[in-house]
Amino acid sequence: MPPKGWRKDAQGNYPTTSYVKEQENITIHDLLFPKSVVAGLAKEAGNSVINSDDSNEEKKTMMINKDASLALQRSATVFVNHLLLFARELSREQDRKSCNVDDVLNALDQIGYSGFKSIIREKLDDYQSIQHLRKKKKKQQEVSTENETNKENNEDNDIPMEDANNQTPKESAIEASESADVDNPENVETQEAKKLKLDNDINDK
Known about the structure:
Oligomer: single chain
GO molecular function, one term: protein heterodimerization activity
Region (Disordered): 133-205
Subcellular location: Nucleus
Radius of gyration: 43 Å
Strand content: under 5%
InterPro entries: DNA_Pol-Epsilon_Subunit, Histone-fold
Protein name: DNA polymerase epsilon subunit D
Largest sheet: none
């Protein structure tokens, strides 16, 4: 059942929720920017101005009261939406559905704020450079972590391992040498000759 108070249209159907939302009027309260963000930007800009010509080491801080913060919030929302209206018109003239940076900068000329173009371009370049440095730093950290992991794996592989008889490589080499002497007939004959010579020396004495 539809909510109470809904009426059928000319075709005898109840309107859907999306249809009702589209028919509702959008006010400025639905588009307002966060007050904390607007106030923070205003304080940052104000502090940079009042401290630019101050020779004292102590920095001053600008305070914004409640009414001024509300006025900044509403005026910023109206200005951005007014600028976006002209930027969207420029994008539609070029058969594009989205606005780009050039559309916004050209819209500033149309609304009479050409002086802001250089400032906006400078701030945009700073923002893009910061984002590029963040991505580069993140990539370097990933490469460094991968190299450390590979180094640890290589160190683990270089540790001497014992054979099936629980012998170290050194013990295995000694055993192999002894077995080689026993298996080689020449080595056996040499050992017997040394033993025979030793017996003869004892008998002569």
